[in-house]
Amino acid sequence: MDARSSAPYQDAKSPDPDLEPLPPVTPIVPLVTDPRRQVTVFLLLMTAMFMATLDNQIVSTALPTIVGEFGQPERFGWVGSAYLLATSAVMPLYGKLGDLFGRKPVIMVAITIFTLGSLVCGLAVSMDTLIAARVLQALGGGGIMVSILSITADIFQPRDRARYQSYLGLVLMASSAAGPVLGGTMSELFGWRSIFLINLPFGIFVLIGLYMLLPYRKPDRRPKIDFLGALLLAGTITSVVFWADSGQIFGSILAPQSLAVLLAGAVLAFAWVKVERRVPEPILPLSIFRSRTVILLLVISMASGAIGIGSVNYIALFLQMTTGLSPAMAGLLFIATTGGIAIGGILGGRLIAWTGRYKPFAVVSAATGLVTMALFSQLHAGTPLMIIGIVMLIQGLGVGIGQQVPTLGVQNATARADVGAATSAVTLMRMGGASIAISIYGAIISAGLAGRAVSLPDGAEFQELTPAMLASLPQDLQKAVANIYSDAFVPLFLTAALLIAAALVCALLLPNIRLPKTEKQELAEKAGQAAAA
């Protein structure tokens, strides 16, 4: 049977009339069959995931110190944007390389590049060299994230995979929560270079562990790299992400220069489609997009990135500017969101593994996101912190319940030979949704604050207020500023609600697919039937 022509996980024998009919296929033997070795390899993957995702968060609180040493504050944002840009550009390439050459050599190359990039970051002598080193680091980091999800698909059966991918989601959330705290603490105690150099021992440890424990499965296909397609796709992604961030350079994402960048991306995308239709091994097979299930899940992934990742910084700003919380206290309040994600992720993963269904969890996740964004739009200056914390907890639960659905569903609906490319598409859509949403949210807040003014002491500018400056103002001025920010955030939260509403519609349209039972579940069911007989 041609591996490319089949989606290997559909339970075709189920009598449920709602199931999307797919042909039965020969079961795939997991790459690692020994349970203890599976767990050990997975722990190594979790370490690599934490290392790669932490590094995008840990730099945030160290940036003021870096700018103080190097100067060039106008390039402040590019230390983070360069990482996001390069990560997004290389994800599809790594997914395809894993399909063609095998996961093991690809992830080891990615970890090596990331570790070397971390070393160069730690040795940077200027802001320009640091930004260039961040690009090098991201060329490995993007491959780590995509390869880990693909390897998880190789070593676990579908229902077990749901549970383990929920753990990866917890690692992602843990790195987001711990990154700013670790960045500030390490830069204060050991200098800012330590936040990059700490990756070296962890990178070497993971490399040695995967070399010894992760088997190599040679793909059945002859490697044929679509270099032109990879270049055009990278250019398309770079153009879109750069357009989303272009507001800080050109003043608006609708400025002529920004629209020229977007037009260039559209031209590159058109050329990419033309190339992919002709090459034998496209970098991102267009056949993936012929599945209605895949399209719906990619939209859900994009919306989840816009809400779960893109809104975090703005919720933090909302908390600080409308409640008077310090950055540290606002960060502590995010424990409610992180805790909700942890609970929802574990619960959702186990329930998907038990029921074999992922559609209900996509629906619940999107519906919860819609409700919480609507609730956020009704919060005003002076709302009790307890109520805000409850809303954040509910939001976290919703994100956690559905966080693994897009990856799991797309892997289930895609031929085994294209799992890596399909997984990279899911991750890319999530990152792209976050990047574009950040730009949209920023434009909304800027428009909401434009023309608003408060007479502040010592001639201070309203738009340049920091949480510390706000806390030092008289009570009446604090209230006036809080009300202005509260009003500015209403359209932002309503926009976020519309985005997640689109995800809810897509979730309701998903076919009610059931994942096949694991070998242990099959044996337990047969034993139960035998006992009943």
Automatic annotation (TrEMBL):
Main location: membrane
CDD domains reported in the protein's UniProt record: MFS_Azr1_MDR_like
Major facilitator superfamily (MFS) profile domain sequence ranges: 41-514
Glycoprotein recorded as keyword: no
Membrane topology: Multi-pass membrane protein
Compartment annotation: Membrane
Membrane keyword on record: yes
Transmembrane segments: 41-63, 75-94, 106-125, 131-155, 167-186, 192-213, 225-243, 249-273, 294-316, 328-349, 361-379, 385-402, 434-454, 488-510
Keyword entries, A-Z: Membrane, Transmembrane, Transmembrane helix
Stretches the record annotates as Disordered: 1-24
Protein name per UniProt: MFS transporter
Organism whose genome encodes this protein: Peteryoungia desertarenae
Species classification: Bacteria, Pseudomonadati, Pseudomonadota, Alphaproteobacteria, Hyphomicrobiales
